[in-house]
Amino acid sequence: ATYNFNGDGVDTDSPAIRMIEQYRRFGIHFDHIYAYEIRDWDVDTVYNSVPEHMRGPLHWINVAVEADPSSQNNPHRMLLEQFGPDDFVVIKLDIDTPAIENPLLEQLLTDPKLQEIVDVFYFEHHVEMEEMKPYWGEMDKS
Using one digit for the tens of pLDDT, what is the confidence trace for 35-50? Predict the structure, then answer.
């Protein structure tokens, strides 16, 4: 399982799609791809924009991710409910919102059950950097 299309919506060159394609080149095909997206996208547009081999396993979840562990929209909660230690679980966390990303990271670092099921974790840590302000904007300090 993998999740998060980086907020790129239907960008077929999104980092998440490139990552999935890289795994595919090494013979790893994901049974489930969970993509959370806060912006409202037309489902047909999304499915017609991703590579055909990703359409079957794609679970397009058009809601905002929430950091609250008890929320239905917390992706870690979904992983804990759906997967176990024998599954190969990859997380790409990059939603450009430190107020959500950092608590999700903390949950992964402190929850032994999550650590037991997550095999690979990709994370772009956002920090205040003058050179990145044109791309990231002002960072939320939370």
Answer: 888 888 888 888 888 8
